[in-house]
Amino acid sequence: VQLQASGGGLVQAGGSLRLSCAASERTYNKYFMAWFRQAPGKERDFVAALSRNGGSTYYAEPVKGRFAISRDNAKNTVILQMNSLKPEDTAVYYCAAGPTITSQARNPSAYYYWGQGTQVTVSS
Questions:
Q1: CA distances (Å), 60 to each of 22, 25, 64, in order?
Q2: In this predicted model, what pLDDT tens digit does every residue of 27-61 receive, in sequence order?
């Protein structure tokens, strides 16, 4: 599976961005889909994940209530809507896909396929 992430950019604190991850093949009912992020000098952190059928979502504590992950099955695309952005959300955001299980949804090692990353910068 090839993944293409887009939608990053520069936004002021409190603003919103919508990231998209387009997959080269159907991911619905095949793969968990997730977003991770990596700030300079830090490890890659889990942000959000969506189960194979889209029925369950998982979020990191820092983004709960502000970010929402969803699928557009017709377009083989996963969306990360990011609202109320904070400077600490600044990072390169990566989308990922993998035939993982619920208990591993937050583990980057459980994902086989990765997009190229898109930069999100939130100014204060």
A1: 22, 27, 6
A2: 988 999 999 999 999 999 999 999 998 899 999 99
